[in-house]
């Protein structure tokens, strides 16, 4: 049997089991949240989801983190749905075939791809095995969209890629050219002087967009990017709230509320006939601005800066 | 011995931590990479912490607030901080103090510029005119309201100011700044920033001068007091940044400065300062969970004080016994032996009090610290530092040689996220001067976050301020050969560290989507063993009283302070603060009481309750129009206080209104700015002393920045 047919077959079977399960049972489905860490950020997402579904009699919930491994084993037996938060929890549950259907949230595309390749050879096979993923990454288009709203006349867009993201260079170049923007791409070399690398690119840019990479690259370059951006009065569009707090003009990112909302939506749709296991890109986003940086750059910000839905529209 | 073993253990523990850190090899971008904090540290603990997590009340004066303010000098900014007193002993001897009485030398406040302490050991205070930076150089100022010994050491006894200058990377090209005002205010600065090869650099040259306060006419006598407190300052500084790799950065700074001003009040004698500093900081971000820093700096300051000279003949004429065995100084007369020796001096014009005295102070400080963020719920740092202070002052030390002191400090700060809502902080510092007992200061704090917008903080600390090298060794004497003719001040032989026990409750609230921030601090600060001068009767050749530096007082400070920041848009800024302080304390002023009959051997203990202004209020409003015209206004009120327990009169309270208008024109990255500031609109007021009349001050400014 061809692989494609096998995948479809498996998916169909799973769907059938779901539909039949729902048809013959009025019992609420027990949802187990498995957290990578017992941290406020993770707990907040769980609380938002459970609060949103509190009036929905179809679900009951329990929460465990990876520190309670023995309890997880027994909890899995009583669970109808497993939702993981974070890549460590996703990895633990992907190894466990009992945890199905499995929704992995708070996970980057990079991490999910690596886990899918490690445990299922590829993403389609992982999906076919009853796994879905709600990705944390915000698309590059959304960041460009935000940049364009703030600087409608921009022509040159600086993009910094690190060792983990440089494989996607052509994607970023193509995306920019498609919008008639001139790409100024920098592949940062960790062993060379970062300022000498950044300076010529930021000088030529109307806006600068660092692409998320490994933590060490992100942390160490941010300071220099932000300082050079002040020198040349070039706005930086970041990828996290921390980046804005540190001095980027704006960021578009997935907040706990965004992750929770999309996970709730997915949970509610589980019983729909059209439900499919798939990679779900971020449906929602949050935009955060730094008013002090806007003041410094002499820029006027949109009136509703906190949850600027239009920036999430493509 | 046990202490040494303990020191060794911690040193090796630190060394182990640093050496065991290696690059992590991660080939997948995870959520941790997305959430990673940008490399910035808080001055409270030297770790990455957000305001909601820090164990102290903090005020941040950022670039926007500086430019929106009506400040024309650096010290003006501290009126924006609740609990901070800004005062002028004379026009060019400003003082900044937190809660406790400031006095001529405000000694309980640490001030750092980019991590380099500018607390001057020779005068046990910060000499603001010599620090070599001005408003334009500052990126932001972080003010820790409350003791910060556990991170900054002994001088951060009541509060700590961390001034962060603008990065050399944040500017390019040449910036020129000129200002001109009444009272002889003139100044200019030129700085150039560039990237040459691997090195980012900035050099700044600055000159400024003013005539100080106007002469004072006493009422109702109309007697004139001549005020001669002008100053001229010149500074030249250089900052460099080299970043050989993304994980390593090396900052270095050099500076020299010269200030000609005066000392004292009523009698104004010339004082000429020369200062220089060198500073280097190497920072390495070792991996995702640790970094390490090495800071080494050298501050050198010397000054020449001019004085009214006294010759042998003058001394004999004033204190020498006449036929009745009396002197012009009445009750004070030279002993026959001293008089006989002085009379045999062949050169009767030989100086006993010289026309000028030179003083020299030198500080080397080296600090190594490492921040460790390996566990999600635990952050900590460890630091080890050593400092070498040396002084040379024939007058202050009563000796010709150099006096040196080595002090070491070892500190650790830890933050533990005990639960989703609760963050606990603990910090401790062990300070040890060579050949002296160590002191051990600590701070503990619990921050409870009711919601993302509301944080309550409970904190307690115990801190010690060790006497500075001068406080412990001062022996100001005027000699004729080996005979001490006059000793106005000397230190007690057994001077102890000042002690502070502090408790506070704080609240930090954020409203209107973080546009409005409110912070309140209720505090109780018990200060004991306060170091000051007491007076004793003394049987000297030319004196019957001596001042002795000693532990003379205690004080309890209770009160509350709050600040509110409102920035609804990038056009409007509102900043309010208020402090209410109830001071209760006494100083042992003298061991005698003077009356018409002479001296009575009675202790003169004086209240210092009124030496702290009870209420201080500051309001700043600024609006920036679309055409880059900025209008700012501020109101400041300070209630009356005694500037010293010495005086019976209370300096009256005052309020002042300052205004500023500035407009900036841009052409790409070049800009030009014109500004006009008015300080103290309306009637003049007394600044710290009755005769320091602060009259309306007008300053026109002009700035050009060209890339």
Please supply descriptive tags for the structure shown above.
heterodimer; A: 314 residues; alpha/beta; six-stranded parallel beta sheet; three-stranded parallel beta sheet; 12 strands; elongated; B: 707 residues; mainly beta; Maltoporin, Chain A; 22-stranded antiparallel barrel; five-stranded mixed beta sheet; 56% strand; globular
Give a structural overview.
- The complex is a heterodimer of chains A (314) and B (707).
- Chain A contains 13 helices and 12 strands.
- Chain A has helices at 3-24, 40-52, 69-77, 87-94, 109-120, 123-128, 140-150, 169-178, 194-204, 215-232, 241-246, 256-269, 291-297, and strands at 29-35, 59-65, 81-85, 102-107, 131-135, 156-161, 182-187, 207-210, 237-238, 250-253, 279-280, 286-289.
- In chain A, the strands form 3 sheets. Chain A has a 6-stranded parallel beta sheet, with helices on both faces. A 3-stranded parallel beta sheet of chain A has the order 7-6-8, with helices on both faces. Chain A has a 3-stranded mixed beta sheet with strand order 9-10-12.
- In chain A, helix 4 (87-94) links the parallel strand 3 and strand 4.
- In chain A, helix 4 (87-94) runs parallel beside helix 5 and helix 9 packs across helix 10.
- The radius of gyration of chain A is 21 Å and the shape is elongated.
- With 707 residues, chain B is mainly beta.
- Chain B has a single domain, classed as Maltoporin, Chain A (Beta Barrel).
- Chain B is 8% helix and 56% strand.
- Chain B has a 22-stranded antiparallel beta barrel. Chain B has a 5-stranded mixed beta sheet with strand order 1-6-7-4-5. Chain B has a two-stranded antiparallel sheet with strand order 2-3.
- The longest helix of chain B is centred in the N-terminal third of the chain and has 18 residues, at 2-19.
- Mean pLDDT of chain B is 91; it is low at 14-25.
- Chains A and B meet through helix 2, helix 5, helix 9, helix 10 and helix 11 of A and helix 2 of B.
